[in-house]
Amino acid sequence: MAVSEPRQAATVLLLRDGTPGLEVYLLRRTRGMPFAGGMTAYPGGGVDPRDADVETAWTGPTPAQWAEAFGCDERTARELVCAAVRETFEEAGVLLAGSADGTDVVPDVSGDDWEAQRQALLARDLSLAELLADRGLALRSDLLRPFAHWVTPPVEPRRYDTKFFAAALPVGQEARHVTGEADEASWLTPSAALAELRGGTRPMLPPTIHTLGQLEPFADVAAVLAGSPPESLQPISPTFEDQPDGRWAVLPDGTRIRLVVPLPA
């Protein structure tokens, strides 16, 4: 059987300090989606060709520095960071951008004019570089941190090579349930999300389960952004085992993740 080449993708763990502690923004993908329908996931998606646009105004760590962090070439690194910023705006209404000198972050992107540009991004009538140029803004790559790297196993027909980023919700902005690819959007602590998983009410794919577990020990956003574990950037591609008590994902280091949904009797 031919093995499909994984598509480059970016996913963002958007974080805030809530009343119960560290919270992460989660979307429940609509049932019937061709990939991960009904599953809870983070904002994110595949790289668009225009994400490589070298005209994109940029402040913070350079594409070369991101390439070193993710072990990829500079063009791919540029695409991934731009995709992370673009997808966060498209799916959560949050824009990780600010002044060209890197001194501030755009405080509010919820007006009708912003919404028209978000819709144009979704329709691919507008590129991220064009949106930023029109607003006199620059992408703020310093607001992102590398967090994890997952690759869909070769046995799957639809494959992604996904880089996971962590980012704090910018002051003055609010995440909004604006994506048509999800029927629910929630701020939850990692522990609460995993409790719903175990209760059978919030199914997730292994990367989401594992990264929520990685977030659990952190007390607040600052602690997460201070540095994710270096080993989290090693590519992870799980294998799967069917056992009497359900299906398990097995990671290269031997970690086992129960996928909760039991096998039919």
From TrEMBL:
The keyword Metal-binding applies. Residues 5-210 form the Nudix hydrolase domain. One of its GO terms (molecular function) is metal ion binding. Coiled coil: none annotated. The keyword rRNA-binding does not apply. Keywords: Hydrolase, Magnesium, Manganese, Metal-binding. This is Nudix hydrolase domain-containing protein. InterPro entries: NUDIX_hydrolase-like_dom_sf (IPR015797), NUDIX_hydrolase_dom (IPR000086), NUDT19 (IPR039121). Its cofactor is Mg(2+); Mn(2+).
